[in-house]
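Section 3.1: Structural characterization of target chains.
Under the original work plan, the team committed to producing a structural model for every single-chain target entering the pipeline before any wet-lab resources were allocated. The record below documents one such target. The sequence was received from the expression subgroup and is listed exactly as submitted; it comprises 399 residues.
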Amino acid sequence: MSEPAAFYIKPSSMEPLFPEDREHRLAGLAGEVLKASSRLFGSLHPVTRKSLTEVVRQMNSYYSNLIEGHRTHPVEIEKALQGDYSRDPAKRALQLESRAHVEVQRLVEERIGGGETFSLCSGEFLQWVHREFYRRLPPEFRQVATTSGKVSVVEPGVFRTAQVQVGSHFPPAAGALENFMSRFALYEPMRLDPVQRIVGAAAAHHRLAWIHPFLDGNGRVIRLFTHAWMIASGIDGAGLWTVSRGLARSRSVYMDRLAAADAQRWNDYDGRGNLTDRGLFAFCQFFLETMLDQILFMASLLNLEAIETRFLRYGEIHSVTRGEKNIGPLLRDIFMRGTVSRGEAGRILGMPERTARRYVSDLIERRILVSDGPGQPVRLVFSSDKLGYYFPDLYPEGI
């Protein structure tokens, strides 16, 4: 008999950990995700790819916070990362939150890539992510009102000590969280085969939300955890895509699927665990479809023919509005090659060397190009004011 939702104290209450996949639909989607992410990884020059991963970090921050109802313009996120904050306290708080997300994502990536041995699904790792995120937030974002109306301060990296309600869902009792997190550790991706890891990214995403280990901030921490899972599983495309964009664009479906998978099983035909197997299957299917959609979206943006067309078009617009040389061919070549020397830039532009050097310096001043120093090769700057030209639809229309 199913355990009443209000008294979740047994870790077995979160079963099943994985949905049944009799027709191999989830496995099929996982295989497509694996292939698509592998193709995305090898599509760019390493220097260009490194620059684009920073764009994706900022995009991930924008969409993950947007899911929580916090909207910060990409230009404001970029300014925050440069230490340029609004005088408006409300906007400044959102900038700090956005910067925190970017910085913690970078920390997560560095920790995974640093050779340290640790358990991704451990309470220690999740508390570390929460601590790093919350200690960067402004004071007003560290407070949460409980259902009784009491305002509590969220302690960075500390599991909740009070019972909470999320919609119609009553997460496990606070005193039982350590036991539930021990059960959650069974998801450890390195214990799974490549296909199971991808399905597991979705299943673990839901079950961690179901546990709701922190008083607040669970959504952002869970999505950062899922990003870490994808890196560890080798499906992050070297940081070139984010599932948060797809989740934000289908926010109502995301929330509905999360809530539906919280339910207890409906009958004897709905799996063998305490929770609904059908609900977990539907969430995993939605999540994997969203992953695949976002990988394919980025692959289409990074298609070399399409990239060439967009850079040449931007060059035409730039030359018409400023009455200058068309820089499209230069932008295209730098994108393909990662960097070019200043002398080579002059040859691509068809300019005498001295004229080209002055022109390249001007492009650096306008943040179209960047260099590590005088005389050093130049590479592209993917600033927020140009992303709409280079990579349309990264952000919602009108942003």
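The first helix runs from residue 25 to 41.
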